Amino acid sequence: MPVDLIVTCAVGFEDLFRGDLLQEHGIRSRSIEPGEILLQDVEDLGFLTSAVALDRVALPWDPDAPSDVIADVVRRLAGDAGIEQPVRFRVQAAPDVREELIARFSDGAGWVNAPSDWQVNLDVERGVAQLGPLAWAARFGTLRRLPAATPVSVVAGLLRLAKCAPHDLLLDPCAGVATVPIVDAIERPDGRCIVLDRDVEAVDLARRNLAERGLDRRIEVSAGDAARLDLADRSVDRVVTDLPFGKRIGSNSNNIELYPRVLREIERVLTLSGRCVLLTDDKRVFKDALARTRGLKIVREQVVRYHGVNPSAYVVTRSRAPGRRAR
Ligand SMILES: C[S@@+](CC[C@H](N)C(=O)[O-])C[C@H]1O[C@@H](n2cnc3c(N)ncnc32)[C@H](O)[C@@H]1O
């Protein structure tokens, strides 16, 4: 029997991902909150094994309904959702409501209250039963992170905008802990990717993240400067990167120097049909630098929101063939 699911994704990319769900999996949906989508009449959870854009997965749940209503749905999905019996759960609610719900589900549905090892999280405020084994980290594994690491669901949106073909060479010149190549590898298992970062701690974590996923032979990480790429002219098909915003990493005045240099290098290494998706919150500095970079233009700006920032993902392509004078 089909079920409705409530899934979360990066704020700003809802419509893009909804279109993909319809086109690729025939799943109808509607946005219910920023970053929250209701998927309607889902027949099969199989699509989640490749849905890198979706972060948390939950069932709509009415906290006032008897426990067997949601318990029946969870029982039906248990095999496909990786939920063991008896169901281990926790309740997110004010203390008095929590106690009442723990008793209701323990007595009525035979579930076991396990706040530190739950598989189903009953969230009273949001009215959802979150399914732990279907969360991004449970489906695709956890990553070693740094404070400035880009959320995986945001990276999924950047990669979606980049439209990488299976054998395109993808570059992330400010790769941090390697979130971009790792999310990319889920969708492009044979995709080629070059990543670098100036920070040695980030490079170390990136290498460990890649090694733990068996990607270290295929994807090489080096310590390097995005403004001095050791790459041939016209050799890179796609550039996807989360630039330093000048808040946690670097500074606004550094970016005034850094962005023009990085953009010049990107222009040099990009193939004629190349495409870049560059994320930054230092928008004025970025747009000024881009306007002064001959040969590149912004074709789309998508504002996203996470962790209290509202950066833009700029889709950048060539404005004209390199070496040819504008008339
Ligand atoms: C916003 S973080 C990128 C986060 C990354 N996407 C991740 O998920 O970990 C920006 C990164 O740019 C790096 N960076 C700053 N200046 C750089 C430069 N000139 N060359 C290469 N990397 C640089 C920083 O060390 C930092 O890791």
TrEMBL record:
Pfam families attached to this UniProt entry: UPF0020
Keyword Ligase: no
InterPro entries xref list: RlmKL-like_Mtase, SAM-dependent_MTases_sf
Key words of the record: Methyltransferase, Transferase
Entry protein name: 23S rRNA G2445 N2-methylase RlmL
Residues of the Ribosomal RNA large subunit methyltransferase K/L-like methyltransferase domain: 155-308
Keyword GTP-binding: no
GO biological process, one term: tRNA methylation
Domain of life of the source: Bacteria
GO molecular function terms attached to this record: tRNA (guanine) methyltransferase activity
